[in-house]
Amino acid sequence: MSATRINRFVAKAGQADALKLFLTELIPYITASPGCESCELLQQESQKTEFFIVEKWHDKAAHQASVAGFPKDKIQSAMALLAEAPQGNYYQRC
């Protein structure tokens, strides 16, 4: 069953551009992952420190395999840019 994953990221003050760059560089990795149908990065209009990544996957397992393969050192370096822990959930079309 297909799955949509919506992830929320909030940058620390002064780190929005750096977080945006990191997330932008993450998109090709996501879209090249087996089972990824689409991926889009969004930035909140009035709160420029808030970002969302909306991912559509063939199934939840494909997303989880993609996350497991992403380099951990890159994730650790991005954590320094965040004001709070990233949030994410799976959604299904109604």
UniProtKB/TrEMBL annotation:
GO terms for molecular function: monooxygenase activity. Keywords: Monooxygenase, Oxidoreductase. It comes from the Bacteria. Residues 4-67 form the ABM domain. The keyword Oxidoreductase applies. Its EC number is 1.-.-.-. Gene3D superfamilies: 3.30.70.100. Transmembrane segments: none annotated. This is Quinol monooxygenase. The lineage of its organism: Bacteria, Pseudomonadati, Pseudomonadota, Gammaproteobacteria, Cellvibrionales.
